[in-house]
Amino acid sequence: MAVMPHQDAFEDLARFYDPIMSQVNYDRWLTVCTALAELQPRTPFAHVDIGCGTSVLMKKLVRLGWNTRGVDLSWAMLLAGRKSGPKPVVACADMRALPFARGSCDYLTCLFDSVNFLLDPADLGPTFREAGRILAPHGIYYFDVITSRMVTEYFEGRKWTEKNGRFSTTWEGAFDRKTGVAETAIQVNRNFISVVRERVHSMDEIRAALGDAGLTLLGAFDAETWKVPVKRTLRIDLIAAKEPAADVRRKFKAIEEQLRERME
Ligand SMILES: C[S@@+](CC[C@H](N)C(=O)[O-])C[C@H]1O[C@@H](n2cnc3c(N)ncnc32)[C@H](O)[C@@H]1O
Predict the structure, then answer these.
(1) Full residue range of the structural domain in which residue 112 is found
(2) Pocket of ligand 1 contains residue 111 by CB under 6 Å
(3) Does any domain span residue 221?
C-alpha cells in the first residue's frame, strides 16, 4: 500500500460540497443502489457506503429505512454532512483499512468516483481486499469510476466559473496522461483553492485487483445507459460479488435488463 501523507483535499471545500453538487443526479445512484438490493436474500441487510462524503446517498437510504453506515477519509466531509437532515452512523476511515469485522456486511457501495481518489494502482489491491474481507458470502460491492474520456472531455486544460447560489466556484483542470492523474483546482469566491486529484484506473487494473481480492465481477456498465461501456463512456458502474451463488447471477441478469430499460 502506498503511504501518502494525509492531506484532506476536502478540508476547505467540504462545507460548500452539497451546494456545488446540487445539480448532480444522485437519484440515478439511488435507482441502481435500490435495484441491486434485490440481490439480498433477506432484510434488513447491513449496508456500508464507503467514501460516503457528506452522506447525500445515505440520507436518502435512511429515509427508505435502510440499515446503513458510512466511512470517509475526510472528517470535514463527514461533519459537513451532519449540518442538516438525517444523521446516519459514520466513521472516519480509509477504504484500504475498514473498521468492520470479517463477513459483517452484506452490501457495499463506493460511488461518485471515490475509488479514483486512490492515486496509485497498487492501492486497488488493499481496497478490494478490504471490501472482500468485510463482505459476507454472496455480498455485493457496487462502485463506480470515471474514465479518461470524462477527464479529457470535461476537465483537461479547461477553466470555468460556476454560480452556486450565494457563492461561485472557479475550476481549472489538468491531466497527466502518463500517470493517469487528473488534478482539479477549485476556488470558492476567490478565497481558498482546493486541489483534488483523481487517477483514471484502467479496466484491466480493476479486473486484476478484483480477481486477486477474490471478488467476482458480475458486470461493468456505462453508468448512463447500463449498456457495455464504449469510447464515449464517462463513468462506469461496476458490480462485484463475493462467492456469488447461481441464483445471485440469475437475479443479477434480470436486474441488469430492468435497469437498462429504465435508463433508455
Ligand atoms: C467525490 S467525493 C464522493 C463522496 C460521496 N460518495 C458522494 O457521492 O457525494 C469522494 C470522496 O471519497 C473520499 N475518499 C478519498 N479517498 C478515500 C479513502 N482512501 N478512503 C475513504 N474515503 C476516501 C473523499 O474524502 C470524498 O469524500
Answers:
(1) 24-148+202-262
(2) yes
(3) yes
